[in-house]
Amino acid sequence: AVAAARVTGRPHPRVGAVPVAEIVARDAAAPPASGDLAAHCRASLARYKVPIEFRMVTELPRTASGKL
Q1: What mean pLDDT is reported for the chain?
Q2: How many Cα atoms occupy the beta-carbon half-sphere of 21 within 13 Å?
Q3: Quick check: pTM over 0.90?
């Protein structure tokens, strides 16, 4: 359901930074639910690495060579 994603840090007063994900859905008409994305991340990542927010975007910025 995810075509592309990137995770960045958002400043947090107590822990320094928390992860926030930007998601490009494969089907923009039916994007994945944040709960489903969080569950998938919890199954594979350490707790502190799981994004606290999932933002749906239409595209991610890329370099001339196609890298995020």
Answers
A1: 96
A2: 21
A3: no
